[in-house]
Structure formats: structure tokens, C-alpha cells
């Protein structure tokens, strides 16, 4: 469990707080989507959870341990894939030999399987990779590390279209019951079918914090023709076929697929009460 309590944070030299008295509880064992407009603090929050940035005040606890202390027992169970990173100039084998001992549940078979799913060779040299390939290799290593917590910042940025569905497959097939994955992203269509829980942020305000199941029980996502009944509509956007709408759902209505973009736009307009 990740317990964020009343935190404050501003970057060194900046007087503007990214977070002011912000609290959030992440129960875990699911795939969480962390969504928000540019500059709301999604990346900052992931860096704070992983203890790479220091809080001004408040506390972040991971399973009861202070994240800021970067206790090795917690770090062995937490892997953070930032949006941008460098990999050293060495072979993947050498990288694995050097870094895998830190992760007690590291599994080379998982790494090989993920690389194959990403259509990458197993014997590669990290210095010869494109940005998208680097991302796939690092993500494969992250999944193979088998940590209980996996944080990913904009994981599909820089990936081509086939890689995005490979990414969904790779993450979904490596999910286990006691694993918590937090994905911060703007590419909502890339992760829509993957998420179990949605958190939408607007700086220190939480616009939405709900499981996909709860959202689908409360709302239905439909395309309606102009002039069709709109009594139950909470939010509508015109589309080529008519209107994409979020409507209140009653028990007689069928379950619909969540439309994250529509949900996000409704949440930012404070329409999800
Ligand atoms: N190194 C830094 N120094 C000063 N301010 C920063 C720094 N990095 C980020 N910020 C500021 O902190 C705020 C939150 O940034 P952050 O990158 O966490 O947002 P984000 O939600 O991840 O944005 P995006 O969706 O654009 O990636 C922004 O206002 C940004 O300007």
C-alpha cells in the first residue's frame, strides 16, 4: 500500500508548490492509470513515491516504511521507469549480470519472453538501440525484476503503433495478484483496456479516484444521435457519428467500454460528482 499524507513539494529554487497538503491512498494489487493535464505533477509524484525527490513536508509510506529513507528492502520491491533515461554502453547480458542481483525475484525467463514479445533479439548491445527499443528493453528488465511495485512514466511515448499493443500484452501477461503498477500517461488509448483503477489529478486536487468497475457501474459510454434522449447525459462531445456521451447508468443498461478521453474531459470540467 502507498500512503501519501498531506505532502508538500516544490522544486529547488522555485517558490511554486507542485503539491500542497496533498493526500492519496493507493491500495495496490492492480494497474493504476495516473492521468492529468501537462504540468499537474504526475512525474513529480512518481519521483516522490520512489524517494528520488525529497518532500518539503508530509509523508509517503510504502507498506508502512518512509519512502524518503530509500530503505533497500523497499527499493528491491520498487522499480521506476522514468519517461527519459540513459542506458550504459554495454551488452544486455552484462547489464543483467550487474543489475539483476539487486532484485531478489529477478527472472531472466521473463526478460527473454518480454523481449521476444517486443520482437527484439536476446543478445543485444544497449548502445546500439533507438529510443523506442531502449524503452522496450528497460521495460522488459523492469518486468523481469518482479518487484511488487512498478511505476512507469509515459511508457508508450516514442513507441510505434504495433509496439503499443505489444506493450499492453507484455504488461498484462506479467501482472500477478500482489503486484501494483502505476502508469502515468497522456496516451489514454494505449492503456484504456489495461487499467483497473483511474486516478485523475489536477495539481493537489484529485478529480477522480475510482476503479474501472465502479466507473462502469455508474456511467455508460455511448454514441447517441443528435436529438436522442439526453435526460441522463452528464457530458457530451460531438463526433462524426453523432455525440459521444457519458450517461448515468441504471441496472437495466448493459455494461459499456470506458472511454477514458471522454471521462478525462468530463472530470476536468468537474462534471463527475
Ligand atoms: N526540474 C524542475 N524544476 C522546476 N520546476 C519543475 C521541474 N520539473 C517540473 N517542474 C514543474 O513542476 C510541475 C509539475 O511537473 P511534472 O513534470 O511533474 O508534471 P506532469 O504532470 O508529469 O507533466 P507532463 O504531463 O507535461 O509530463 C510543472 O509546473 C513543472 O513546470
From TrEMBL:
Annotated ABC transporter domain residues: 2-228
The keyword Cytoplasm appears for this protein: no
Highest taxon in the source lineage: Bacteria
InterPro entries: AAA+_ATPase, ABC_transporter-like_ATP-bd, ABC_Transporter_VariousFunc, P-loop_NTPase
GO MF, one example: ATP binding
PROSITE patterns to which the protein is assigned, alphabetical: ABC_TRANSPORTER_2 (PS50893)
Pfam families: ABC_tran (PF00005)
Keywords: ATP-binding, Nucleotide-binding, Transport
PANTHER family per the UniProt record, alphabetical: ABC TRANSPORTER ATP-BINDING PROTEIN ALBC-RELATED (PTHR42939:SF1)
Official protein name in the record: ABC transporter ATP-binding protein
Lineage: Bacteria, Pseudomonadati, Bacteroidota, Bacteroidia, Bacteroidales
